[in-house]
Amino acid sequence: MLKAIFVIATFIEPEQFGPNPLSMLWLLPLVAAIAIIYKATKLPVIKANNFIKESVILFASIVAFIFVAALTLHALAWLIIG
Amino acid sequence: MALRSTEKKTLFMLVVGLLSWLVPGAGHFVLMERRRSIIIFVTVCLTFCIGIYIGSIGVVNLFGTAPWYVVGAQIMNSPIVLVLGRLNTAGAYRVYGWPNEIGQIYTSTAGLLNFLCIVNAVYLAQQRGLERA
Q1: Which of residues 9-48 of A touch B (CB under 8 A)?
Q2: What is the complex's ipTM, to 2 decimals?
Q3: Dihedral angle computed from the Cα positions of residues A48, A54, A55 and A59, in that order, rounded to the nearest 10 degrees
Q4: Which residue intervals of B1-133 are DSSP H helices?
Q5: What is the pLDDT of residues B79-119, one digit of tens each?
Q6: What is the pLDDT of residue B131?
């Protein structure tokens, strides 16, 4: 009973964190969800191996693109601001 | 009066779309896409739950200050969001800053992903018609 109350309490009290570099890691579960749902709607037949492989490839592609975009913007900001 | 074939098909598509909205993945379940429906249900629910875990149910602020596009995206999750919004009327569960933003992003994205699944289920229903369902 006490455990159940603690679980419910986590949903009525927000987590405490600020805009630090580690909070950027919250994008990973979101990217995983996007990759999984996209592949679940696009693949003609769902087979475990193929589905996991396709989802992982899409997940890695999105993360790599975000990383490159972040590096580019960082370099641009560094060039402008100095 | 009996419904014509096209009317039956339209009704079936509407039912599939409505089911997909009521329970994420239910539209695909009706279309015998069991694996797809389980994947959709688990992923959409988990994404939404992560959102309200981060920002509390205060991120579902349907009748408050949340922008219309966030409210619209959140409602696409399921009608249960309306119940959560009702619980949060008059700002009963206040949340500010990053937890609010990240929570809103998660819950809105879950809703948009479910919207994609609704459109996909209706498209599949339209493609297959009544015969194979």
Answers
A1: 10-19, 23, 26, 29-30, 33-34, 36-38, 40-41, 46
A2: 0.87
A3: 160
A4: 5-22, 26-30, 34-55, 68-75, 80-87, 97-128
A5: 988 888 888 776 677 777 888 889 899 999 999 999 999 99
A6: 57
Torsion angle, alpha carbons of B69, A59, B116, B37, to 10: -130
Tokens of B11: 């009704």
- Taking the CA of residue B2 and the nearest CA in chain A, the distance in Å comes to 34
**B residues 29..58 contacting A (CB < 8 A):** 33, 35-36, 39-40, 43-44, 46-47, 50, 52-58
Q: Which of B52, B54, B81 to mutate to test the interface with A (most CBs of A within 10 A)?
A: B54
> Do B96 and B57 touch, CB atoms closer than 8 A?
no
